[in-house]
C-alpha cells in the first residue's frame, strides 16, 4: 500500500481561546447535524452561538475526509425525502440557504443479496408496492396491509416528535391525544408486527432489508423506527452534490452571520454547573467559557456519563436512567480508492446489502459469538458514482465505501492506544477483517480487482477517536423499544440551562438529527417565537 498523506479537507475555524467572542447566547457541544441545525436556527432568531467541535473538521458524521487523492464520507451514503418540496427538503433548503443540492440515485437505489437471492427496491410509493407484489405475487394482501401500516405510522411519528418538545405538564395534558395518535404497533418489534401479516420469511427479509440504517435486526428493532426509515426512503435515495461535507459547509455561514462560529479542535471536558444551574463549559485546555445555555449534541452517554459532574448526574436522576438505554452496534469501515471513473468501472448508484441468509437476527447472534462467522450484513456504497461533481475534484478516479458491524469488545484491549500507533497485532487484526470485506466486493464486482489503488480500514476505535463515541456507537443509542419509550430523551433536561439535541433525542439519521435540532430550538425559544420561523421554513 502507498504511504498515507494527511487529509486536507477541513471546515470550521480552529479553536484558540483568544478567538472566542466575549459572550455568547448559547454554546453547542458538537458540530454534527443536530448541533449545526440547532445553532443555525437559533442564529436565524438573532442568537450568537458558539459551536465547539472536538474533531479537526466540522460536521460530525456528515464530515468527509481526503487521503491520497481520494475523498470519502464517514456517515452519509444516502438521504431520502428530498426529491420534492417535502418538509425534510424545505428544512435542508432553509439551513443551507438553498445552496445544498441533491442528486438522485438509481430508481433501484438499494439491492439486497439475501443468501443466493437478489431483490431490488424501487423508488416511489406505488412502484415500491408493485415491485414487492411482482416478487411475491402470493403475498399481495400482506404487502397492502404493510403499506397501510406505514401510512398509519406517518402521522404518529410527528405526534411522537412533538411530544418530546413539550414540557412535562404539557405532555401530561396531551397524553390522551398522543395515545390516540400512536398505533399499537408503534413500540412492538418489527418482526412481531410483520409476522402477523405474513409467514413468508423472504418477504420479511426484503421489507427489513434496510435494517442496517438503524442498526438493529427485526427481532430487536422497534416497528416505529423501521417505519420511519422505510417511509424516509420510499421515494428513493439522494446524495448531496459535492459530497457529504457540503452539508456542514453550506450551513455554517448561517451561524456566522449572527456573529457565531464553529470551532474545531475544541474538546469540551466538562459542563460547568454551579448553584444547580449550567454556567458554561470547561475546555480540554482548561479554558472556561461562560454561558447560561449549553446544548449538548455529543450524545446522551457522553453528556450524562462524561461531561456532567457525577454528583449533578446523580442528583438529577440521570445516572439511574442510563441503564434503560444501550449503545448501538459499532462498525468497521473500508474506504477504497480506484483508478478509473465510476462510469469506466461500471459502478452503480445503488447500495448493495449482502446478507448470509434471510434470518438476520440469527446471523447477528452467530457473528457476535464467533468473529469467524459470516458478517451478518455487508453494506457497499459507491459515493463517487452518486456525486455528479466528484470528477471535478478527483479526475480519473472513483471511490467505494464498505460498512459492516463489529462489536466494540473485540477492540477494547487497544482503547488506550493512539490512532495510527495501536501496534502490529491491532493492524494485523484490522487488515484481516478488511480483506474479508474486500472479498465481498470482489465477489460481486470481480473486475475491480485490478483497479483498486488504495484502501484503508476503520474500526470502532476510529469512531471513538474521531467522533467521541466511547463504545464506537454507529448510531448513538440503540433503537430498542425500551429506548424509544424513555420520555427523558427530550431537548429540555432537568438541569436548568442544559439542553440536548442530535440523534439520541429522536432517532438516528441525518434527517433524524436535523429534526431533533428543530425540536430543541422550539423547546428553547417556545412555540410563540418559533412560529414565524416555521412559517419562513415551511411556508
Ligand atoms: C457508517 C455510517 C453510515 C451512515 N449512513 C447514513 C446515511 O446514509 N444516511 C443517513 O441519513 N444517516 C446515516 N448515518 C447516520 C447519521 O450520520 C447520524 O445519525 C447523524 O449524522 C448523527 O448526527 P448527530 O449530530 O446526532 O451526531 P454526530 O454527527 O455524531 O455529532 C456529534 C459531534 O459531537 C462531537 N463531540 C463529541 N464529544 C465532544 C466533546 N466533548 N467536545 C466537543 N465535541 C464533541 C463529535 O466529534 C461529533 O462531531 C450513518 C452513520 C454512520 C456511522
Write the layout of secondary structure elements.
Layout: E1 13-14, E2 26-29, H1 33-44, E3 49-52, E4 64-67, E5 70-73, H2 87-95, E6 102-104, E7 110-114, E8 117-120, H3 125-135, H4 140-165, H5 168-181, H6 190-195, H7 201-207, H8 223-232, E9 238-240, H9 245-257, E10 261-264, E11 268-274, E12 277-283, E13 288-290, E14 294-296, H10 300-307, H11 310-315, H12 318-321, E15 331-339, H13 342-345, E16 351-355, H14 360-369, E17 378-381, H15 383-386, H16 390-393, E18 397-405, H17 424-444, E19 452-458, H18 460-467, H19 481-484, E20 498-500, H20 510-525, H21 527-538
Parallel strand pairs: 1-10, 2-3, 2-14, 3-10, 7-16, 14-20
Antiparallel strand pairs: 4-5, 6-9, 7-8, 11-12, 12-13, 15-18, 15-19, 16-17, 17-18
Helix pairs in contact: 1-9, 1-20, 4-5, 4-8, 4-20, 20-21
Bound molecules: flavin-adenine dinucleotide.
Flavin-adenine dinucleotide (FAD) binds at residues 29-35, 52-55, 60-62, 75-79, 266-268, 297-298, 302, 331, 403, 467-468, 474-475, 502-503, 508-511, 513.
Brief summary:
The chain is an alpha/beta fold. Strands 8-7-16-17-18-15-19 form a 7-stranded mixed beta sheet, sandwiched between helices. Strands 1-10-3-2-14-20 form a 6-stranded parallel beta sheet, covered by helices on one side. A 3-stranded antiparallel beta sheet has the order 11-12-13, with helices on one face.
Please characterize this protein's 3D structure.
- This protein has a domain at 13-100 and 242-325 and 486-538: 3-Layer(bba) Sandwich (FAD/NAD(P)-binding domain).
- With 539 residues, it is α/β, with parallel strands linked by helices.
- Helix 1 packs parallel to helix 20, helix 4 (140-165) packs antiparallel against helix 5 and helix 20 crosses helix 21.
- The protein has 21 helices and 20 strands.
- A 7-stranded mixed β-sheet has the order 8-7-16-17-18-15-19, sandwiched between helices. The chain has a 6-stranded parallel β-sheet with strand order 1-10-3-2-14-20, covered by helices on one side. Strands 11-12-13 form a 3-stranded antiparallel β-sheet, with helices on one face.
- Strand 12 and strand 13 (288-290) form a beta hairpin.
- It binds flavin-adenine dinucleotide.
- Flavin-adenine dinucleotide (FAD) binds at residues 29-35, 52-55, 60-62, 75-79, 266-268, 297-298, 302, 331, 403, 467-468, 474-475, 502-503, 508-511, 513.
Amino acid at each position: 500500500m502507498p504511504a498515507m498523506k494527511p487529509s486536507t479537507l477541513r471546515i470550521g475555524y480552529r479553536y484558540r481561546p483568544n478567538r472566542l467572542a466575549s459572550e455568547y447566547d448559547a454554546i453547542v457541544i458538537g458540530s454534527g447535524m443536530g448541533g449545526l441545525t440547532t445553532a443555525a436556527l437559533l442564529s436565524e432568531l438573532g442568537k450568537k452561538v458558539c459551536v465547539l467541535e472536538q474533531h479537526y473538521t466540522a460536521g460530525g458524521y456528515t464530515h468527509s475526509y481526503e487521503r491520497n487523492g481520494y475523498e470519502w464520507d464517514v456517515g452519509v451514503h444516502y438521504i431520502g425525502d428530498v426529491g420534492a418540496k417535502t418538509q425534510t427538503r424545505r428544512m435542508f433548503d432553509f439551513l443551507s440557504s438553498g445552496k445544498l443540492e441533491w442528486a438522485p440515485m438509481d430508481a433501484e437505489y438499494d439491492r439486497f443479496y439475501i443468501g443466493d437471492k437478489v431483490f431490488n427496491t424501487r423508488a416511489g410509493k406505488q412502484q415500491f408496492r408493485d415491485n414487492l407484489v411482482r416478487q411475491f405475487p402470493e403475498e399481495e394482501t400482506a404487502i397492502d396491509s404493510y403499506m397501510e401500516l406505514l401510512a398509519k405510522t406517518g402521522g404518529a411519528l410527528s405526534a411522537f416528535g412533538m411530544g418530546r418538545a413539550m414540557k412535562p405538564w404539557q405532555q401530561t395534558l396531551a397524553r390522551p391525544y398522543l395515545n390516540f395518535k400512536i398505533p399499537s404497533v408503534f413500540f412492538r418489534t418489527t418482526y412481531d408486527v410483520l409476522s402477523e401479516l405474513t409467514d413468508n420469511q423472504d418477504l420479511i427479509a426484503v421489507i427489513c432489508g434496510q435494517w442496517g440504517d438503524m442498526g438493529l435486526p427485526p427481532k430487536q428493532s422497534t416497528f416505529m423506527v423501521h417505519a420511519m426509515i422505510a417511509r424516509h426512503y420510499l421515494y428513493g435515495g439522494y446524495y448531496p452534490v459535492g459530497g457529504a461535507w457540503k452539508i456542514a459547509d453550506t450551513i455554517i455561514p448561517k451561524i456566522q452571520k449572527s456573529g457565531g462560529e464553529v470551532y474545531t479542535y475544541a474538546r469540551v471536558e466538562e459542563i460547568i454547573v454551579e448553584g444547580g444551574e449550567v454556567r458554561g463549559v470547561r475546555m480540554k485546555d482548561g479554558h472556561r467559557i461562560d454561558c447560561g445555555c449549553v446544548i449538548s449534541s455529543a450524545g446522551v452517554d457522553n453528556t450524562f456519563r462524561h461531561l456532567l459532574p457525577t454528583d449533578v448526574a446523580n442528583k438529577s436522576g440521570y445516572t439511574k436512567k442510563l441503564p434503560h438505554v444501550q449503545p448501538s452496534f459499532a462498525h468497521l469501515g473500508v474506504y477504497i480508492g480506484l483508478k478509473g471513473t465510476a462510469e469506466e468501472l461500471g459502478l452503480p448508484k445503488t447500495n448493495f446489502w449482502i446478507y448470509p441468509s434471510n434470518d438476520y437476527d440469527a446471523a447477528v447472534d452467530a457473528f457476535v459469538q464467533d468473529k469467524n462467522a459470516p458478517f451478518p450484513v455487508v453494506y457497499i456504497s459507491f459515493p463517487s458514482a452518486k456525486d455528479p461533481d466528484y470528477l471535478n475534484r478527483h479526475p480519473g478516479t472513483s471511490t467505494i465505501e464498505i460498512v459492516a458491524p463489529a462489536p466494540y469488545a473485540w477492540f477494547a484491549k487497544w482503547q488506550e492506544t493512539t490512532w495510527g500507533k495501536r501496534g502490529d497485532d491491532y493492524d494485523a487484526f484490522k487488515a484481516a477483517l478488511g480483506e474479508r470485506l474486500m472479498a465481498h466486493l470482489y465477489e460481486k464486482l470481480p473486475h475491480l480487482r485490478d483497479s483498486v489503488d488504495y484502501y484503508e480500514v476503520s474500526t470502532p476505535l476510529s469512531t471513538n477517536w474521531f467522533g467521541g463515541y466511547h463504545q464506537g456507537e454507529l448510531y448513538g443509542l440503540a433503537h430498542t423499544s425500551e429506548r424509544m419509550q424513555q420520555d427523558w430523551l427530550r431537548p429540555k433536561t432537568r438541569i436548568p440551562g442544559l439542553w440536548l439535541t442530535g440523534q439520541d433525542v429522536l432517532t438516528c439519521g441525518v434527517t433524524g438529527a436535523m429534526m431533533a435540532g428543530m425540536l430543541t430550538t422550539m423547546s428553547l425559544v417556545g412555540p410563540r417565537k418559533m412560529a414565524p420561523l416555521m412559517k419562513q421554513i415551511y411556508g
